[in-house]
Amino acid sequence: AQSVTQPDIHITVSEGASLELRCNYSYGATPYLFWYVQSPGQGLQLLLKYFSGDTLVQGIKGFEAEFKRSQSSFNLRKPSVHWSDAAEYFCAVGTINTGTASKLTFGTGTRLQVTL
Amino acid sequence: KAGVTQTPRYLIKTRGQQVTLSCSPISGHRSVSWYQQTPGQGLQFLFEYFSETQRNKGNFPGRFSGRQFSNSRSEMNVSTLELGDSALYLCASSLGSSALEAFFGQGTRLTVV
Predict the structure, then answer these.
(1) Which residues of chain B neighbour A32 with C-beta distances below 8 Å?
(2) How many angstroms separate the CA atoms of B31 and B52, rounded?
(3) Helix, strand, coil: what percent of chain B each, to 5?
(4) Which of A9, B3, B101, B110 is the most exposed place for a label (fewest CB within 10 A)?
(5) How does residue A28 score in pLDDT terms, banded at 50, 70 and 90?
(6) Does the beta-carbon distance from A103 to B43 stay under 8 Å?
(7) Which of A32, A101, A109 sits opposite B48 (nearest CB)?
(8) Nearest to B98 among A90, A102, A107 (CB)
């Protein structure tokens, strides 16, 4: 069965500093990988996705992520964090079962706090 | 283009009651998925519908059910509510037949007392 691990429950960074959020997945086939962000009381917003091809993917809000098959990782990065980036970040692996039945399996999330 | 709309946003129910939550997907999207989010269990997949057919179901008891209508709108129902059903219920819609690239609504916050 597929699984996603986000080892950091909570991270605090200063505004303007760089950010890296870790994500490791377990899945037997080629994974479809996603990063979502959730602000308090809100739904999930898709930041970026990896399906195939270039292992460095660009997303919205200046985020990027790199797929490393050898490490089963899909870490999220941002060169310079803004106070508005404070939120909870979820990594997810998408799996397709028989036919096209599919679902997302999420990690437990990393809460990002940004200090001014 | 309107996003995924979930109604109601907040709901308070008593143990033993039943509840129906509604989700209107983005126009043109035919796949709808439901997720439960709790502090203890995180985000868990409930079910996925495409063209009025349930294609995938998560590991939840039979008290949790859903359906999708011909206009792609979806409802989920929870019967005989338990305190542990208190959660944020998120609906997501996808354009294609694969539900992977999902766009989420703001959720319905259900509190069972």
Answers:
(1) 100
(2) 9
(3) 5, 55, 45
(4) A9
(5) confident
(6) no
(7) A101
(8) A102
**pLDDT value of position B109:** 97
Amino acid identity, position A31 = P
How far, rounded to the nearest angstrom, does the alpha carbon of residue B108 sit from its chain's CA centroid? 9
In Å, how far is A102's CA from the nearest CA of chain B? 6
CB pairs A-B closer than 8 Å: 65
Q: Which residues contact A113 (CB under 8 A, 6 or more apart)?
A: A10, A11, A12, A13, A86
Q: Strands B108-112 and A87-96, how do they pair?
A: unpaired
Q: Minimal Cα distance from A88: which residue of B?
A: B42
Q: Calculate mean pLDDT across residues A18-35.
A: 91
The residue behind tokens 């985020």 is A63
pLDDT tens for each residue of B92-113: 999 876 667 889 999 999 999 9
Strand partners, B109: B10, B88
Contacts of A102 in chain B (CB under 8 A): 48, 55-56, 98-100
Contact yes or no for B42 and A108 at CB 8 A? yes
What are φ and ψ of residue A2, in 5° steps? Answer: -80, 155
Find which of A19-28, A46-55, A98-107, B13-22 is predicted with most confidence, using mean pLDDT: B13-22
Residue A99 has pLDDT above 60, yes or no: no
Q: Residue A89's closest CA among A32, A11, A36, A46?
A: A36
